[in-house]
Amino acid sequence: MSSEKTSVPEASVYRLSLYHCYLGDLIRKGVIGRITSRQLAEELDIREETVRRDMSFMGGGGRPGAGYEMSSLFAALTEFLGLSDDYPVAEVGTAQMLAALKVVFPPYSYGVKPIAYYSELPEDVGKSIDNVRIRHITEILSREESLSVDVALVACSPGWAQVTVDLLGQAGVRGVLLLTPVTKLNSPEGMEITYMRMPCDIKALAHRCGVVVGA
Amino acid sequence: MSSEKTSVPEASVYRLSLYHCYLGDLIRKGVIGRITSRQLAEELDIREETVRRDMSFMGGGGRPGAGYEMSSLFAALTEFLGLSDDYPVAEVGTAQMLAALKVVFPPYSYGVKPIAYYSELPEDVGKSIDNVRIRHITEILSREESLSVDVALVACSPGWAQVTVDLLGQAGVRGVLLLTPVTKLNSPEGMEITYMRMPCDIKALAHRCGVVVGA
DNA sequence: TAGATTGTTAATCGATTAACAATC
DNA sequence: TAGATTGTTAATCGATTAACAATC
């Protein structure tokens, strides 16, 4: 594990994740060989200089004149991002939400694997998704496995968001992707929260779509 | 409708949406009176200068020494963003997803109102959510009301994303908030798409959480 | 008037783009 | 060697922060 500094810009880390998703997809489809920064850029609507710059942050191992070897680039990205073949995550939400989410965002297609489910509804307890039993949110702390997850995806109702995040924090979870749109949350010490904020995105879109009348 | 230029920075528009959400919440709770940039900043983890700067982009009507009058600020934000009391949107996804989403993101709490639902599953057709009937995605074009929606929230399965977006574009929808994580999409002419990309957010979080070992 | 807070101009910071030398 | 593409340094751009004069 080389000494990866966190000096890598936030925006670059995000794009590196995007390359990881894209390459993972290609590789799963059986595509092999090399890929250039130009191809990647074109495919993902980014400038090619940006792609190369991003790659250089983690020593992408590109070859002038030849581009990047896909499988080794993918491996480098996987290591840089701290992922594994099936990166384990916890997911929180009603059984209904968790089941629906699986369809919209099929984890296996992205190298992600939910290993624990928690619901806010007592009646969901005991149901299973892909042979993983759903537990109650309040059980987050009582699981030893909790510690084996760094990142959780939270899509509970607004009223449960704070409790959930607190419990996850105590259970050692370090990063949370929050789909629930709460305007303010008290984030536990040392926890990274990525806010999704669908309402804000919708309102920002409303602005951009509503205004363009002139000219 | 004053001549709002789109020269307002993207980031500011997003924060203005955030203020709108926050104020809407307060007002709905019955809070009235004035609020200062400092209070807003503290509440939302932003710097107060940033708040004031954002406000100045739309002529917030603040009073030196006294702050902003909440209800008129909210009205100004509503107008600036091109919203209404119940901003109409369309939502696309399975009945299961749409029902689950309603709990996680209760639209009425944010001044948003789904007036049309479309599902990718034929068996969902005819079901209702809050007395709005679910139709099939392929029916998007056959609705006259389609034109009365500027923005849609799309949470269908990856395979349906392109079709959905195309149909929405033809139906006159100008902005789409896409929850479905497709790496590349052919966006119809003149359509704004906001990509959610849960897998990338999760991977970026994995990086930030996994690396901090040193020091 | 004194106290408080706004709106704006200037300074800083970070990220993106452009240019190009290094290298397979 | 010639052609292609990388990695890096410098220039540009945009957004955030700081400072402060204007004003209720």
Descriptive account of the structure:
The first copy, chain A, is α/β, with parallel strands linked by helices and 215 residues long. The first copy, chain A, has two domains: 76 residues, Arc Repressor Mutant, subunit A (Orthogonal Bundle), CATH 1.10.10; 115 residues, Rossmann fold (3-Layer(aba) Sandwich). Chain A is built from seven helices and nine strands, in the order H-E-H-H-E-H-E-H-E-E-E-E-H-E-E-H. A seven-stranded mixed beta sheet of chain A has the order 5-6-4-3-7-8-9, sandwiched between helices. In chain A, helix 1 packs across helix 4. The first copy, chain A, is globular, with a radius of gyration of 20 Å. Chains A and B meet through helix 1, helix 5, strand 8 and helix 7 of A and helix 1, helix 5, strand 8 and helix 7 of B.
Q: CATH homologous superfamily name of the largest domain in chain A?
A: NAD(P)-binding Rossmann-like Domain
Number of domains of chain A: 2
Oligomeric nature of the chains: homodimer
CATH class of the largest domain in chain A: Alpha Beta
Give the N-terminus to C-terminus distance of chain A in angstroms: 55 Å
Overall CATH architecture of the largest domain in chain A: 3-Layer(aba) Sandwich
Q: Note poorly predicted spans of chain A.
A: 1-5
Could you say which structural class the secondary elements and strand pairing of chain A correspond to? alpha/beta
What is the number of helices of chain A?
7
Give me the CATH fold name of the largest domain in chain A. Rossmann fold
- The general outline of chain A is globular
